[in-house]
Design a protein that fits this description.
heteropentamer; A alpha/beta (246); B alpha/beta (338); C mainly alpha (224); A: 246 residues; alpha/beta; 5-stranded mixed beta sheet; 8 helices; 15 strands; 31% helix; C: 224 residues; mainly alpha; binds adenosine-5'-triphosphate; binds magnesium ion
């Protein structure tokens, strides 16, 4: 029932290094329409979401939907991902040593992303792969404390997400996104031990404040992103490291 | 001007002052002597409150030093100049700025500062070093900067800790004249700590000798040197393990060149004899004085009681340079009373 | 040989990304360094005044100051930057961008500067302090006209060290979207697998370090 | 009142996450500090030896050393940690975990330590160096037996400063999976919206800072 | 042992040594005097290679200092002890460690070090300060630590820059005896820079006076003091604007107590008269000596040419303390040759 926010012409959009091109496309598309778009790059953390909530910026492409929901709950925020969602990132278990999941030995070492959302997701992947079992979640994310059984006594090393892929030679297996596999390990992201079944449950896209969800610029942005031209650009740029949602 | 009563001061187990009493009158130039480590510097530092003392009372310029603090202490110290034994100059400042520092702290105008600093550097004889840093100065030059700095504030009391120890006699004399002059023209009280008796005798009217943390002797300089109290003897020459000399007869004393006329006059006075210094080559080493043959024993005794280190030349007959045939000589060395 | 195409590619990043980030870095660094130097100096002043070997020892006050300095120092810069963003917002009005970075950077650098300056001042010969006391200098004058003067080279060397340390800390300011050459190196370079940008930025950082060090050394020698 | 449930919750994190991270931090910090102190000392030794005001001035060698120190210092620690991982792997055999963090931390801390030590040694009175020369001390002896002895308090204060600075830098080592209390504060605390963990970790960091500072001050006073 | 030829040394525009020639023989105790800032310390520092010189040649202990470097320089310096004017003690080390430092650098056994250090501290008279830090010592105590340190290596040459300036006369004498003893027993060459003529006269056989960057006078101490070259006069007393005294007749000289017997003997010798010091109270201030009436003019002239500052009491008849009726007196002050 709210009336849409008054039309804004000056927009600030936040991104991460990997999502920056998408925002550039939005900028490119919105500028002729009389918008003034500024793209701000952040390191990985929740600050862009906070800034968005506080109104310091107007949109981000950085966090996936489940994270945004958690963030809203923890911070009494009302951020929303503009529909239709844009893409998802492909998570999988990779290994340089083993070809099959069953070959993973006792006391194997895994490098997994250390930031809470990806750690949580990684733990679910491990559960789905049948390597561990998990207890009830106590906080917003699963943590190492939530592991119930670990029959193979797998040792989990939490690292920065780009480092997980880099460490593939040093450990038995890793959990990483296809994007980082391709970029840092220079490996084929399609060769994996186990694909995250929840991949599609972690959609990404333009996140804005609730009142902007229906604003002209948000709608327009999604239209720009989903244009044929940009979809082609997307596939060309990310080469299957991210997958577009139809 | 300065009255100390029963001052006690220790550094841990080192008891430096052990109940020291001292009274220094306004406008006097007061000498303080004492063995190295006797506590002279410590006493000076107590006087301007740089060091606290354990007990006793110290009234300086009408105020009890212990009661002072903060602003009052600063104002008090403004009137007390101090020349430190180790100079204590700021290494990063030029000579000019070192001397100007007290004036700057008391917010004098830069005109006044400039005039004053240049004048003082002129007086202490290093106007050409005005832009140098202390590390580019010789020892004596540093000392003169320290002297100039202590004089900038026209203090009512000036505490000099070995203020001329690094200066040649000539410059030292000039500084002494300067001190005398400011003492007489401006009536400032000057306390002089020194090891050079010539400074005390040339500069001070009164003096005190520190020993074992107390004043062992004090009074007019001339009286101290006339009466030669134990303390003065302790300070001047070492105890000598008095094996009595065995000399048959003495006629000529060969004294070291440094012995003072005063010493000879004291001896002449005490023994009631005339001591003659002859107008012919006294020969090396030292110089010769002639005393009557019959006063020989007396001289011998006098020398030994006065801790003059000497050795007998008995048996070694030697031609007297004064033409009185062969005489035996007392060879007195280190009768250095200056 | 470097191809024209590569040069154009490089120039695109250089002009569009790197050059603005240089200015951002310089602005953040200079402002936060100036502010933290001033604040650090004030803190050091009181640390020296009230310290156990200080001019006017006051254990309570010293411990309080020491506590403040230690508390801030115990926050890793990265945590400080993100964790105080609500306070940053209250104070500078925004939680992102250059302005928002300057506040936590200043906050992080202040106790560092304070310690550097305190350590330098502590080294001043006690005899010089006494000499200043002997002509009635106030505590303020003793610190500013004697201790600071005597330890200026050390302070300069320390400030140089701090500036270089915090040049690298501005990288972390990327967390609040403040840009800066370090963030470019990290985000556009390393994280984006763009070695051209990475090496160019690191080279620029190196040049900045050289210039800071050179300026510091020059000042040091001049003062010595 | 704190409920039993909360205590249990806290204890779970404390025991499972925080305690191991404390040990990880202490291991990383102590090892990298000891190594970087030794290496930094060696660098400082040669900087002082060959420096422009040094014992045996040698402009070429000094400039080379200075260049090395500046180059390393110009890498922001976070970039150093992630960017040199190929080298890390070559040297310590892995690019991940505590061992992999100690190398870049040492590398980052070494030039910092070198500068801190160099700055302290530079302050030693030239007259003492001359005195040592006058009885035929070698350059090595002058540095180790005179300059170091005289500036030990400054060096201790500087090493304390470095240790605290790099305690906060161990946070960044979380990037290569080294764990550590800082990384816990960031990931399990701040990023996970878990204030309990955040505050507990920061408190622990604060306690570590206090202990380091206290130990440093104690040593300083003892030596002074 | 030390031969300097035409040494030139400047600090920027300050020309300190301007072609200095000096020869100091093996085993001698050589005194160096000169105005403050004359370049004495600089010369000493050149001798052991702490300071370079611009031109000239300096041969010390058979080697040209300029050719030395590295190990050779270290070995060279090992044999040259130096006592610095500003002591240069390590603040963070105890007295023990300060004195032990040279021995440690030359890797002596800790037994040897311990024995040697304790012995030396005993000799310089501060065994109880062994554990103290320099800042807990008095000026003179620091100086004695510096002396002890310079002696640890049993050097062949000892350079003393104002080594007793901070010591009381008694301690100073003890140090001088010590230096004499090690000079005669071990034959070491000692170069003594000092402003205290009593030290030069009590200790040295030969001396030189630095002036304007050159040696203005050198030779046997006794000769220098007998012949009183200009340089000595420049050093000792200020130029006195010679208004000639107008005195009718003189019989008694009242001399300041500090005047040396040597001065009187010189005068007696030069004028060919006897000067008598009488055995009765000479009265204050100063002490009286009697000279023949007919030598009156001569004395007057002697005093004025020797720059003795004096004033005539002519016209003020005064009863002579020696009972010869009323006599006029010359009141000579500052005839301080010590
Ligand atoms: N800070 C201190 N800590 C411990 N002892 C000290 C301290 N300052 C001085 N002393 C001791 O107190 C005594 C007196 O020292 P002070 O400096 O007053 O002597 P002084 O008479 O000036 O000697 P000098 O003529 O050698 O300068 C000395 O034995 C010295 O070792
Ligand atoms: N490093 C320096 N830089 C510039 N000038 C210097 C330096 N060292 C000494 N001088 C100057 O050289 C001259 C001689 O100094 P030196 O220390 O040799 O004198 P000195 O004869 O020992 O005097 P003093 O008896 O006062 O110790 C002085 O005028 C001094 O200012
Ligand atoms: Mg003293
Ligand atoms: Mg000198």
């Amino acid at each position: 029932g709210q009336s849409p926010a008054p039309e804004k012409k000056n927009l600030k959009l936040g991104c991460m290094p990997w999502s920056e091109p998408m925002l550039q496309w939005i900028k490119e598309g919105l500028t002729p329409l009389g918008y003034n778009v500024e793209v701000i790059m952040f390191d990985a953390n929740q600050l862009p979401a906070v800034a968005l909530k506080d109104g310091s910026i107007d949109g981000i492409i950085q966090n996936h939907k489940p994270w945004i929901i958690t963030f809203n709950k923890e911070n009494k925020a009302n951020l929303e991902m503009v529909e239709p969602y844009y893409f998802y990132s492909f998570f999988a278990i990779y290994s340089a040593k083993y070809k099959k999941l069953e070959e993973i030995p006792q006391n194997a070492t895994f490098t997994i992303p250390g930031d809470p959302t990806n750690l949580s997701r990684s733990l679910i992947i491990l559960k789905e792969a049948g390597l561990i079992t998990l207890k009830e979640k106590t906080g917003p994310f699963y943590t190492l404390l939530d592991i119930k059984d670990n029959p193979k006594k797998i040792k989990l090393v939490e690292a920065e997400i780009t480092q997980t892929a880099r460490s593939i030679q040093d450990v038995d297996a890793i959990i990483a996104t296809a994007y980082f596999m391709a970029e840092t390990a220079k490996a084929d992201p399609k060769v994996f031990l186990f694909e995250d079944p929840q991949n599609k449950d972690f959609p990404l896209g333009l996140v804005v404040r609730h009142e902007d969800v229906n604003s002209a610029w948000a709608k327009e942005s999604m239209k720009i992103l989903r244009s044929e031209k940009n979809r082609a650009r997307f596939n060309e740029l990310y080469k299957g490291k991210y997958t577009l949602i139809d | 001007m300065i009255t100390a009563r029963n001052i006690v001061k220790s550094f841990g187990s080192t008891h430096v002052l052990r109940g020291l009493d001292l009274a220094i009158g306004k406008g006097s130039i007061y000498g303080l002597a004492g063995r190295s480590g006797a506590g002279k510097s410590t006493l000076l530092r107590c006087i301007n409150g740089l060091e606290g003392y354990d007990s006793g009372s110290l009234i300086v310029d009408g105020t009890d030093v212990k009661t002072l603090g903060g602003r009052a202490m600063m104002a008090f110290r403004k009137n007390i100049g101090m020349i430190f034994q180790q100079f204590s100059l700021l290494e990063r400042l030029s000579v000019y700025d070192n001397v100007a520092l007290p004036l700057k702290c008391w917010k004098y105008s830069s005109r006044t500062i400039d005039t004053k600093v240049r004048e003082l550097l002129e007086i202490v004889g290093i106007p050409e070093k005005i832009k140098q840093r202390p590390r580019e100065l010789s020892g004596g030059q540093k000392q003169r900067v320290a002297i100039a700095r202590a004089l900038t504030m026209d203090p009512r009391i000036l505490l000099c800790d070995e203020a001329t120890s690094a200066l040649d006699p000539n410059t030292s004399q000039a500084i002494m004249s300067l001190l005398k002059e400011i003492n007489s023209s401006m009536g400032i009280t000057i306390v002089v700590v020194t090891h050079q008796m010539s400074v005390i005798r040339g500069l001070c009217k009164e003096m005190a000798i520190l020993e074992n943390g107390r004043i062992a002797a004090s009074g007019l300089v001339e009286n101290i040197f006339r009466e030669q109290p134990r303390a003065l003897k302790n300070l001047m020459g070492e105890e000598f393990g008095g094996t009595s000399p065995t000399v048959e007869k003495t006629v000529t004393l060969l004294l070291p060149d440094t012995v003072t006329g005063y010493f000879i006059s004291r001896m002449a006075e005490e023994l009631g004899i005339d001591v003659t210094i002859r107008g012919s080559d006294p020969g090396a080493p030292g110089f010769g004085v002639t005393v009557p043959e019959d006063a020989c024993r007396g001289v011998e005794g006098y020398l030994s009681t006065h801790k003059v280190r000497w050795r007998s030349l008995a048996g070694k007959k030697q031609r007297s340079p004064y033409g009185d045939g062969y005489k035996e000589q007392i060879h007195a060395v280190n009768a250095d009373m200056v | 040989m470097i191809s024209n195409g590569y040069m154009a590619y490089w120039w695109r990043y250089f002009e569009g990304i790197i050059v603005p980030s240089i200015w951002a870095t310089l602005r953040m660094l200079s402002l936060s360094m100036v502010l933290s130097f001033i604040l650090g100096f004030i803190l050091a002043y009181f640390l020296i005044l009230y310290g156990p070997q200080g001019l006017r020892p006051n254990s309570t006050r010293y411990k309080l100051l020491d506590f403040i300095v230690n508390s801030i120092r115990s926050f890793p810069v990265i945590i400080l930057i993100v964790a105080i963003s609500p306070i940053t917002r209250m104070i500078v009005g925004t939680s992102i961008g250059e302005k928002a970075a300057i506040f936590p950077l200043t906050l992080a650098a202040t106790p560092f500067m304070a310690r550097i300056i305190e350590n330098s001042l502590k080294e001043v010969d006690k005899q010089l302090i006494e000499a200043a006391r002997s002509f009635g200098a106030s505590d303020f004058q003793i610190i500013t006209k004697v201790m600071v003067k005597e330890s200026v080279p050390m302070i300069v060397a320390g400030a140089t060290l701090s500036t270089i340390t915090f040049l690298s800390a501005t990288t972390l300011a990327g967390a609040v979207g403040a840009g800066g050459i370090g963030a470019v190196a990290l985000n556009y370079g390393y994280q984006s697998f763009n070695n051209t940008v990475l090496y160019t930025s690191v080279l620029l950082l190196f040049i900045m370090v050289l210039v800071i060090q050179w300026a510091g050394d020059w000042l040091y020698k001049k003062i010595l």
